[in-house]
Design goal:
The chain is of the alpha/beta class and 518 residues long. The chain contains 19 helices and 15 strands.
Length: 518
């Protein structure tokens, strides 16, 4: 017998028995129909509907499939994952953030859980003569000769996450944490909200939608930009070209998160999906972009101006470097976002299949800037899955001057990696605009955790530097970091990313001739 007919038969029989007992014995039996009769109606409905084959063939029982599918992430995370499983961050990575944010014990027992012989395993060469570093506040100065107001930037900062994507309590806690520990908070492309004004230094990100500095047509408004960029808490301005989560796609703010307050900050219509265009309307070529950067520098009163990019076509970044040389206009910094970035909601193909991974992108940018003689003018900031001291030192070794962390800071706020950021139902109140959820995030508790995560991560970074004999960040070298590349060979980052000759090419002409040989 078909399962559908069997289920319908059982439900009909149960209902008939109850009705019969009600007529034969007492009408109280009819109260028992409150459950089986609605179930019978549902089973009959699903037997004739055509949208869901599972429910048509297995009325009622088919619901278990949807129930188990909906709780599958929770079951996997709480019961089936090992400490080294889980994506995009495994349990061990999440745990170290929680421990450092709470100032708890962060040591592990009984040795490493990873396989040191596995392909991809990474390690650093320690020194038999460790050094001592007194100052744990690792910083770099951003601002070239054209910059009137250089900024002393921590090497570990809060990455771009907008108010709207994150809740007001989350933004407030992040900013207060940045103020407490003296590091920078990137606003994201959603503009500067009141929740960003809690004492933390801001890196104002200006995206293709020009949120916070746009006119009614959505174009760049110079006077609005001048007013906001000259605020005391705005220390740098970052022009967003693309991001790793969705390179070439533009930003997405779902209508559910576009509240009247968010819309007022962004100068858009509330309750609508807000789509940032893929490209800027203020410029359309590398040369025009350099002149736009110069305009932003002048409007801001000489503050550091840079741009954020996820590397795709290598030729295009080389064209940007040519434009720097030809115009003699140099951005103060470049933010390199790897394709591993993930705080932005994005189509699956853009998340999984577009953009260059961080280490390849960073090494390429470093080589290109040096080959063109531009590295002395431009600082490099990176982002993508950076949560530990070892993560920080790896990117420093590949040429970065500082880094951002987005999801690491979200974990410090209490994020449990529920993977519901784009559904406006974040269970811990970080990535939602629903009051009953974000009010559960206590700002006074969480901002301290953000500061402690930053402080303890830099402490761990310094401890690794001491163990390796790196007295300063400039001593951190690619030839001291290693990766298992196959079953037999282990190569240094120098060999993997910069070649075995121990130095980079000497000119951009030589560089361009060699760049595409492979």
């Amino acid at each position: 017998m078909e399962v559908r007919k069997l289920i319908l038969s059982i439900m009909i029989v149960i209902n008939l028995i109850i009705v019969s007992f009600g007529f034969i014995f007492t009408s109280s039996w009819f109260w028992l129909l409150i459950i089986p009769f609605p179930l019978l109606l549902i089973a009959l409905y699903h037997s004739f509907q055509t949208k869901h084959a599972i429910l048509r063939n297995y009325p009622l029982v088919g619901y278990f499939r949807y129930i188990f599918e909906s709780i599958r992430p929770e079951l996997r995370q709480y019961f089936w994952e090992s400490d080294m499983d889980g994506r995009p961050f495994n349990r061990r990575q999440r745990s170290i953030v929680y421990q450092r944010a709470k100032n708890q014990r962060e040591t592990v027992a009984f040795g490493m859980q990873t396989d040191p012989q596995a392909v991809g395993n990474e390690w650093a060469a320690h020194s038999v003569f460790p050094c001592h570093i007194e100052n744990h506040d690792l910083r770099t100065t951003v601002g070239n000769a054209a910059c009137k107001k250089p900024y002393s930037l921590s090497v570990f900062n809060i990455s771009a996450m907008s108010y709207g994507a994150l809740s007001k309590t989350a933004i407030t806690a992040l900013n207060k944490g940045a103020a407490l520990q003296n590091f920078a908070h990137n606003t994201g492309e959603g503009g500067i909200s009141d929740y960003h004004n809690n004492g933390g230094d801001l890196i104002w990100q200006v995206g293709t939608g020009y949120f916070g500095c746009r006119n009614q047509e959505g174009k760049f408004d110079a006077e609005l930009f001048r007013e906001k960029s000259n605020r005391e808490n705005v220390k740098m301005v970052e022009l967003k070209l693309s991001q790793g989560a969705k390179p070439g796609h533009g930003g997405i703010l779902p209508a559910a998160k576009n509240t009247p307050e968010v819309a007022a900050i962004r100068h858009v219509i509330p309750g609508t999906d807000v789509m940032s265009p893929p490209a800027h309307s203020a410029f359309s070529s590398p040369t025009e972009m350099m002149h736009f950067i110069q305009q932003l520098r002048e409007l801001s009163g000489g503050k550091p101006i840079g741009f954020k990019i996820c590397i795709g076509d290598k030729h295009e970044f080389i064209d940007i470097c040519h434009a720097m040389q030809n115009t003699q206009i140099f951005p103060d910094f470049i933010s390199v976002d790897g394709s591993e970035g993930g705080t932005g909601a994005a189509p699956l193909e853009f998340t999984d299949n577009l953009g260059m991974p961080l280490y390849d992108a960073l090494a390429f940018v470093t080589k290109t800037l040096i080959a063109f003689g531009l590295k002395k003018h431009v600082k490099v900031i990176v982002s993508s899955r950076i949560v530990t001291g070892f993560d920080i030192l790896k990117v420093i070794a590949l040429g970065a001057d500082a880094c951002y962390s987005a999801r690491g800071m979200m974990f410090a706020l209490g994020c449990i990696q529920a993977l519901k950021c784009n559904e406006d139902v974040c269970p811990v109140g970080v990535a939602t605009q629903q009051p009953h959820l974000y009010k559960g995030l206590d700002v006074n508790d969480k901002y301290v955790r953000v500061a402690q995560f930053h402080r303890n991560t830099l402490r761990a970074t310094v401890e690794i530097m001491e163990a390796c004999g790196f007295k300063t960040l400039s001593d951190v070298s690619a030839d001291k970091f290693y990766r298992k590349v196959d079953a037999i060979r282990t190569l240094s980052f120098q060999e993997i990313y910069f070649g075995t000759e121990g130095k980079l090419v000497n000119s951009h002409t030589d560089f361009e001739s060699k760049l595409f040989e492979d």
